[in-house]
Amino acid sequence: MPSGQIIKAISGFYYVRTEHEELYECKARGVFKFEKKKCKPLVGDYVQFDETDMGKGYITAIESRQTELVRPAIANVTQAVVVCSLREPSFQQMPLDRFLVHAEHARLEIVVVLTKLDLLEDPAELEAIRTRYAPTGYPIVATSIETTDGIEQIKPYLKDQTSVFAGQSGVGKSSLLNKIIPDRELETGAVSQKIGRGRHTTRSVEIIPLETGGLVADSPGFSQLTFDGMEPADLGHCFPEFREKAEECRFRGCLHLNEPSCKVRDAAETGEIDPKRYEHYVTFLEEIKELQLRRY
Ligand SMILES: Nc1nc2c(ncn2[C@@H]2O[C@H](COP(=O)(O)OP(=O)(O)OP(=O)(O)O)[C@@H](O)[C@H]2O)c(=O)[nH]1
Ligand SMILES: [Zn+2]
What we know:
CATH 2.40.50.140, binds zinc ion, binds guanosine-5'-triphosphate, 25% strand, Rossmann fold, 3 domains, 6-stranded mixed sheet, alpha/beta
């Protein structure tokens, strides 16, 4: 039976791309059940289908999902490209760390992109950020859509992944997507003109295969950033540079606050872990505890 991945959905039709890069227009009969839940097919789902006609089919089964993002609704995303601007607005570490924690919690691979490099007067500032984030191990790419610096450097990271771009409003996500996804800019403008409103009101998110390999969601993700559903003990795992240290903490389940012989706190004091990252960890932990109190 043929199989493939749903790359877009428009008014009840699912467009399934096979391994051989053929596109089938499929319908789906009712709802599907897996993991005891009923669900409708999502963009990103790997499905099996019956071929009914040339290029047409019926979806018969959905494979269980590796990941599931809510906004935009996409299954099987594997990577977050976390975008933060260097200028306009100036680099802000707190929102960056917040997005990083959410991406970690969703178990995604992570690439950090720092935008608007052309507006940065002092390159030392970029170097300082790189140094500060080195212990995380995240790849960091600095870009500019004005000079096109860094744009090509992003592409190898997108290979073999299904990526979603995330970051605060105005940091340049859309501008980057326009550079990376061929014809995106054109299409956005044309559709808006024809029907007088944005294209996203008429169709679901689409995942676009890139010529250089990999798939990219054509609209940004992670618009809601509350720590709802996260446990205090989860947070430390969302800071990659904490993980190894945490194994050496004296107490199992150490939350790295005031516990004696906490190796994470020690490392933040010596600067081996960026003290700002540690500070944000403490802030997020407070937020998670606050949310829990309200829940019970
Ligand atoms: N100088 C400069 N300006 C940029 C760059 N990238 C984006 N901008 C500008 O920054 C502004 C915001 O860019 P967008 O791409 O709309 O940002 P966004 O993250 O998609 O914003 P939202 O749609 O609000 O989430 C626009 O005016 C862009 O022209 C860059 O590399 N250099
Ligand atoms: Zn600890």
